[in-house]
Design brief:
The protein is α/β, with parallel strands linked by helices and about 450 residues long. About 30% of the residues lie in helices and about 25% in strands. The longest helix has 20 residues, at about 10-30. The two termini are about 25 Å apart.
Length: about 450
């Protein structure tokens, strides 16, 4: 049951639309290298498309009607967009949900030190990474510093062409005999991922003069004291923009495709809906998926449930917990997360006929998890049957896959968390090469088909 290559189906109009979409996606990817930046970008786009803050609706006691658009900003790190449909919320919501965090290097709370006239920042990596990927490459610093007076200072260093970049040094090959004998997981230790920030001593200083130079720069440019780092969130990410990849420009190389390609596709889908849908729809962009969907902004928190409760109170004649439970259980959801693209150079890691192939369209994973499907949502056959009809009726190129060979590894998504409400959920996303590396690769065709798929699902699920 080999699926056809999507590129072979495109008209000239499709190719033009695909390139336009890809350009918009690259701009989104470059502007949103952190979850905070993604939320800012999403909220501004939503407001420009007529969405209002749900808190404003609550404060005004405004009754919401079919066709109304609201967003929920969750601590600036996750965001929900709702377009209300003709049917009551009790009948369920069509949800497309992605995550907007990506593997990275986080700066510790007490980070700065000097050693041998170099100033460093101590770090703690975030998510599943191959640590050796992150040395000897240009890194940029993104984040915020929250001061005691309530001021929040945004930080972006290393993206403008005139900016300096920072990075983590590697051991020269001439002295690497012992290092090269280690397992790949041990070549670079977590505590060795410290970032070089400065190398020039401050004139007149005798002790830790390079660190003093660093602190002077931070004070002059950002009005930040060393103690302010105690309440900072600074992420080191690969510096520079995404790029067209391949001599045919059929792919995109960039940081954070996992999972911002699905986040962008989900956002594009809900913004494309011009008519009032039959069922209410939701674009859900969550945080902390890479570390287990924990914390107040991860999917294990109750903000989606709370938002639906607020919407019921703003739309129904009366509110009850039973209505909320029915609304949650009756939802239909695509857990929009990327899948491992088949890589011929590492063919032994895959079972080819059940692998996602770049260029064959959006991918559906009936289950994820590891080994014996541990930690997985396993979607119902009946739900998949309905999805097949929706995809085929709307001319979507799609495929199915598993995440690698049985017993080799695996991974998880937010699908199993949402399934706890009793709703129908399946994983759906874009195949990615080099997933979790600082630079990942996707096909423009798969991006294009993902937007088509998510739009069709919102309308017809």
């Amino acid at each position: 049951m080999e699926r056809p290559n999507a590129w072979k189906t495109y008209t000239d109009a499709d190719l033009t639309a695909l390139e336009t979409l890809s350009s918009k996606y690259r701009a989104f990817l470059d502007a949103g290298k952190t979850e905070r930046e993604c939320v800012l970008e999403t909220v501004e786009t939503a407001k420009a498309n007529g969405y209002i803050d749900i808190q404003d609706a609550i404060a005004a006691g405004r009754r919401l009607m079919p066709g109304d658009k609201v967003y929920v900003n969750v601590m600036g790190k996750a965001v929900l967009l709702f377009l209300l449909g003709k049917k009551p919320l009790e009948s369920g919501i069509n949800i497309v949900g992605a995550h907007i965090d990506s593997p990275r290097i986080d700066i510790k709370q007490n980070p700065f030190y000097e050693d041998t006239e170099l100033a460093y920042a101590d770090t703690h990596y975030y998510g599943g990474i191959k640590k050796f990927h992150w040395v000897a490459r240009a890194l940029a610093l993104h984040g915020v510093v929250a001061k005691k007076d309530g001021t929040v200072v945004p930080i972006v260093i290393g993206e403008d062409e005139s900016d300096p970049v920072v990075g983590i040094s590697d051991l020269l090959i001439h002295l690497s005999q012992e290092q090269m004998a280690k397992k790949a997981s041990e070549v670079i230790s977590g505590e060795a991922l410290d970032i070089i920030l400065a190398g020039k001593p401050l004139a007149g200083e005798e002790k830790d003069a390079v660190k003093a130079q660093l602190l002077t720069i931070l004070k002059e440019k950002y009005d930040i004291e060393e103690e302010d780092m105690l309440s900072a969130e600074i992420e080191a990410v690969p510096a520079g923009p995404s790029r067209d990849f391949g001599l045919d420009r059929s792919m995109i190389l960039g940081y954070g495709h996992d999972d911002r390609v699905c986040a962008f596709s989900s956002l594009s889908a809900i913004l494309s809906l011009k008519d009032v849908p039959e069922s209410s729809v939701c674009c859900m962009l969550t945080d902390k998926e890479e570390i287990g969907s924990v914390g107040a902004t991860g999917m294990q928190a109750k903000y989606f449930e709370n938002a639906v409760a607020e919407l019921i109170a703003l739309t129904a004649d009366s509110y009850s917990d039973l209505i909320l439970r029915r609304a949650l259980a009756n939802c239909r959801m695509l857990s929009c997360d990327v899948s491992a693209g088949y890589d011929p150079l590492y063919a032994s890691a895959f079972e080819k006929k059940n692998a996602a192939i770049l260029g064959r369209g959006v991918c559906y994973n009936k289950f994820t998890g590891s080994r014996g499907k541990s930690g997985s949502n396993d979607a119902n056959a009946e739900f998949i049957g309905r999805l097949r009809r929706i995809m085929d009726d709307n001319g979507v190129s799609w495929q199915t896959a598993e995440l690698g060979r049985v017993d080799l590894g695996g991974g998880g998504t937010i699908a199993y968390i949402c399934a706890l409400y009793g709703m129908e959920v399946i994983d759906s996303g874009v195949p990615v090469l080099s997933m979790h590396a600082p630079q990942e690769i996707i096909s423009k065709a798969d991006l294009y088909e993902a937007v088509k798929a998510y739009t069709a699902f919102m309308k017809e699920a």
